Amino acid sequence: MGFKSIAIAAALVLSSGMSTAALADYPEKRIDLIVGFAAGGGTDVMARTTAPFLEKYLGNDVSVVVKNMPGASGQIGVTAVAEAKPDGYKIGTYNLPGTMARTLDRNADYNADSFTYLANVVNDPNVIVTPKNSDIDTMDKLVEAAKKRPGAVTVAMSSLGGDDHFFLQKLTDVTKADYTVVPFSGSAPARSALMGGHVTMGIINISEVVAFRDELNVLGIASEKRSSMAEDIPTFKEQGFDLVNGALRGFVAPANLPENVRAKLLDAFQKTYDDPDFQQAMRRSGNPTELALGDDFKTLNAEQLELAKRIWETTPWK
Amino acid sequence: MYGNLIDALPSVLSMGNLLAVIVGVVAGICVGALPGLSATMAISVLIPFTFGMDPLVALGMMAGIYNGAMYGGSIPAVLLRIPGTPAAVATSFDGYPMAQQGRGGYALQVAVVSSALGGIVSALVLMLLAPPLAKVTLLFGPTEIFWVAVFGMSAIVFLLGGDVIKGLISAAFGVFVSLVGADTITGAERYTFGHLELLDGINIVVLLVGLYALPPAIGLLEEIRDFDTENTGRLNTTSIWKAIPGMLKYWKTWVRSSIIGVFVGILPGAGGSMAAFLSYNEARRASKNPDDWGKGEPEGVAASETSNNADTAAALIPALTLGIPGTAVAAVMLGGLLIHGLQPGPMLFRDNPEIVFGFMWQFLFAAILLIFLGGALATNSFAQVLRLPRPLLGAIIISLVFIGVYSINGRMFDVYLMLGFGLIGYFMDKLKFPLPPVVLGLILGGFAEQNLRLALRIGGGNWDILASSPTAKVLIGMILLVILSPLFSRLMRARKAKRVAE
Fold first, then answer.
1. pLDDT tens-digit profile of A19-36?
2. Nearest CA to CA, how far is A10 from chain B (Å)?
3. Domain coordinates in residue numbering, chain A
4. Theoretical Cys-Cys bridge with B327: which of A138, B10, B271, B296, CB 3.0 to 4.6 Å?
5. Cβ–Cβ contacts within 10 Å for residue A152, how many?
6. Is A149 at the interface with chain B, CB within 8 A?
7. What H or E segment, with its residue span, contains residue B319?
8. A161, B336: Cβ pair inside 8 Å?
9. Is residue B295 part of a domain?
């Protein structure tokens, strides 16, 4: 009896000792990085660009393996992350405002509390574009046209409930004018319809416009400061319109991640972001970077959810 | 710009890059020939592996796979009436009857030569005319694309065959399947019953495999003697070089189908199946003996196979210049470019000419290689498959489609869905409902709906917008011509007959 209880105690001590050791040694096996989109998209490229840097800064010869779980505009992948075991071996990509907007317009099996927020690394601000041969090449002309006949300005953008749509809501509020939404499936078809002159203006992101500067007028960019990708584009704030908005992409883990694992991951993301090679790789793939780490990211998420809620309650899109 | 084309040639001809194209073509033919596996899938599986590779090796492989698979799909379409890819449905119309008559080998030779020619034309168009054709793409806004979809639908009229009511029911079923999933405008869920897996709609491969591959595979298991093994087992092939001179009489079909394929390719979203259906129709309309079609007319195989390959490189024109892929495969290939930091747009041609123009050369080489690799591979290897005992062949096909459908998204849900379609297909087959209208209905139904709604939004709810642009007017004229011309000719014939009677 005595021996047995000692043995159990010893085993307990040993196992607990082992488990703390295991946590201290995180990572000690492969880390899966879930991407909710097919290989080759913007989010996937971000994940694949980041993975080798994470491997480098997490140490222990860990491998970070990108796994694509496409479907339901990212919802399947992000749900898998929310429902995973919070041990740091399954993390995933995260898109704003989409991921939060889906908790409003669909039945989602997760909410804002389902995640440990690691790092948001991409901030891709919205821009307003018109065809090169359009008369509307300044914000003032645009507002004038929109006020002259409500709904006469048609706006090409990608789907409803995304950053483009939320930007349009802000634009509607700020300019006190009405616009007609034309939601294409994706930014590229929206941009092409604009270039063909089938719509008046378009709302896309700065990364989607840099290759098309000769074909499009860019009326402004919805960021606090001018973008390093196109220094000549004035911000809306400079032009007297209080408009800041964009698409955000980052990384999350399931909620209740052990504190030491979280600290290790945050440290690795900070070092990754500070690595000039990472910055160069992101620039090459057309991803404008801006870091929001840990709690900052959590605050950012809460703001985005608040914005989505406000728009959903006043002007639901479905 | 043409100088850039020549500059890109040396690196394409390097050993590694050339080998990549060869491997791609062989892999593509195999993937296309195996029911359930598609080029879209093969390329999406490949993309993650290419992340660290030299871009031209990766792109060469993709170009090879794309061209190879478009031809490979015709092999089971001809030999077993199971189209290996959606674009090979029209190939089976005449290819399978030819195989039943013991002319399967010739059908495959016509298919490979036509595929190669279509591919060569398409690659040349991509190389020489990409920028001007991108301007043509821009003419097509939502209104015009809606009319293109209606034009494609009018082809259904001809695919109905004998029983018009049954044909229309089939087409309506296809359109119904296209409705499943999130509404493309508002995101509202339709017929998803709370399943996230259904939100993106039903993948064409799941439907195609369920309807086309499962029932014949079950047939192989249950009614062994129903399959005409006597003739389909024998291919009766002569050397492809001896067969080519006899095919030269199809030149008109080759030219017409190449033009149709390229045109459909530069329009975003339609894809190889629409190209094949349209050009099959046009070829039959132009034929002197339209009544022989569907009973083993080699020209039918030529029409379908030329245009589904002519669609390949052309689909990359809007993809490379505007970022809007012309087909599902081009969409995945775009991902393959993005992963190498190659952003579509006019800057791509300026910043990375050696890669873009190299990629175009690879398309040309892949098309030419088809003649050398395709003919031999099909007749020597895949045709041997037919010598397998029938139940074994059926079992192999069933396991292949399970693997193929599972690997599209890596989930069992799609497999169950495919089994459901298999059941529907089995009964449609027994009740003699035609299958092609289902495929066309699925492809074009959603396409027409989304663009009509976008057009009406742009027009502020005013239907006048649908006939406002010159391009739209031309398209409406073409649709009326296609629908009314058979009526008109029937009327003429009736009047003539009456006069003769009098």
1. 444 456 888 899 999 999
2. 44
3. 26-123+247-314, 125-245
4. B271
5. 15
6. no
7. helix B316-322
8. no
9. yes
